[in-house]
Q: What sequence folds into this?
């Protein structure tokens, strides 16, 4: 199945919870930090990156679009 | 008459220095993430709290943290950390709206300012919040008479806060006004999922709108398309009345504004406050002060709701109508203190002899100067050209990597 690369600038996150609601298969809330966390992400400097499946693309595109801090990017 | 405190907005170390130099009595600032100005380029980190508190202590001013966003369950650990760090850093108070933050700050013995987000507009609300807060920020929508009534009742009924002292009333005296009841706006959230309550407001109210009839596609001709953008609040013309009403804290809005803005506005309001105390506040001075205020960011000025007008006046342009505009010139490379000369690397906009300019930096704060002479390679020149390395006289100390901006008169917009 085709995969897509998703990037999260975690330092920008203000914990609005929007991505967690829209794409819970890929996002969870880190209650300690009050920030969203990309599930299974690798840390690359200040970025978190992960691969998502085609079937999860639509939800994550919505998460990307609705992130108030533009912290999510899908390639 | 009690000396009302001038409370300055601070969004960076540069603004902090600018506010102190201008003579504020206290400052308020937010920290990363739980901040009503989350979009700002700079927000203080938890690690910086101690530095902010120690700078404020050194200059004998008070420091308040603003933590007045909506809080969800997942925010509570961070909220507690911020309160704990504030206590350990020696921050004087926290400005908050959420009961969880109010309660936790109370448990930790940190003074609370009940935020304007609570829309406190009557004496019974004041009494209620006095159980938890020593200072109460009134809603921006109250009028002067209500303000007086509240202050009078606090004294008469001896309403005191957790510290045992009489409640102090804080009011906004200058800065942006919301079109919605402050703290109740959902426009940004509904339009683009960016909640103002989490500090991510996209200022939908500041945009230009058209009104088109769906059936016929005909458009209403509007006199002013900025149908929701109020002018900024400026209480200078009646600051004497505000102070005499008995308020204790005069708060200036603008954590998102430049250090130059903070410096100018604080300086003007301090002068005006002192004039009221010395019984020489008059409208001639007000005119002069307003001209000064107009040099920095503003959307035009109005009285807000304080004089009982039904609506604020509408701004007629998008954003700023300040009489001065700032053009980035370059960075300070070196300062020669004995000679009072700054060496500046001109990068973006060239400087001409006679130009006014402003230097801003973390330690420098805000310093104004005029390029009375410009030298390149020890020769006088009329204009710097760019890129170039120039020397100009600057009487006050500036520092390497401070930013230099040329101040130019702005071409005024129609209706500004």
A:
């Amino acid at each position: 199945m085709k995969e897509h690369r998703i990037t999260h600038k975690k330092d920008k996150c203000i914990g609005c919870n929007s991505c967690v609601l829209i794409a819970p298969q890929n996002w969870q809330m880190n209650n300690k930090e009050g920030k969203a966390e990309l599930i299974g992400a690798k840390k690359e400097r200040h970025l978190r990156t992960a691969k998502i499946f085609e079937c999860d693309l639509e939800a994550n595109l919505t998460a990307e679009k609705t992130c108030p801090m533009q912290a999510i990017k899908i390639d | 008459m009690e000396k009302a405190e001038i409370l300055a907005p601070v969004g960076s170390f540069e603004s902090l220095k600018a506010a102190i130099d201008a003579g504020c009595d206290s400052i308020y600032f937010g920290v990363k993430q739980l901040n009503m100005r989350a979009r700002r380029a700079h927000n203080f980190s938890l690690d910086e709290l101690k530095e902010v508190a120690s700078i404020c202590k050194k200059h004998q001013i008070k420091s308040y943290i603003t933590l007045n966003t909506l809080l969800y369950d997942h925010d509570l650990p961070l909220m507690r950390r911020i309160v704990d760090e504030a206590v350990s850093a020696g921050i004087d108070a926290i400005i908050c709206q959420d009961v969880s933050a109010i309660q936790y700050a109370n448990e930790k013995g940190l003074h609370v300012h009940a935020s304007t987000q609570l829309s406190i507009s009557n004496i019974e609300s004041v009494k209620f919040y006095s159980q938890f807060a020593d200072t109460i920020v009134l809603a921006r929508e109250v009028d002067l008479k209500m303000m007086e009534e509240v202050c009078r009742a606090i004294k008469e009924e001896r309403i005191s806060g957790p510290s045992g002292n009489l409640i102090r009333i804080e009011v906004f005296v200058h800065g942006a006004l919301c079109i919605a009841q402050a703290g109740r706006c959902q426009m940004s959230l509904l339009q683009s999922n960016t909640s103002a309550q989490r500090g991510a407001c996209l200022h939908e109210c500041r945009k230009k709108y058209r009104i088109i009839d769906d059936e016929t596609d005909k458009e209403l001709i509007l006199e002013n398309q900025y149908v929701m953008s109020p002018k900024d609040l400026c209480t200078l013309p009646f600051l004497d009345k505000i102070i005499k009403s008995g308020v204790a804290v005069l708060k200036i809005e603008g954590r998102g504004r430049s250090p130059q803005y903070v410096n100018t506005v604080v300086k003007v309001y301090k002068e005006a406050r002192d004039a009221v105390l010395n019984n020489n506040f008059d409208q001639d001075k007000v005119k002069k002060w307003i001209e000064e205020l107009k040099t920095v960011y503003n959307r035009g000025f109005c009285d807000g709701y304080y004089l009982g007008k039904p609506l604020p006046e509408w701004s007629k342009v998008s954003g700023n109508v300040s009489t001065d505009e700032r053009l980035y010139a370059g960075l300070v490379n070196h300062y020669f203190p004995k000679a009072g000369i700054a060496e500046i690397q001109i990068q973006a906009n060239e400087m001409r002899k006679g130009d006014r300019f402003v230097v801003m930096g973390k330690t420098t704060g805000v310093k104004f100067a005029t390029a009375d002479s410009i030298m390149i390679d020890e020769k006088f020149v009329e204009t710097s050209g760019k890129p170039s390395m120039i020397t100009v006289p600057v009487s006050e100390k500036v520092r390497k990597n401070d930013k230099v901006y040329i101040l130019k008169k702005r071409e005024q917009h129609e209706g500004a």
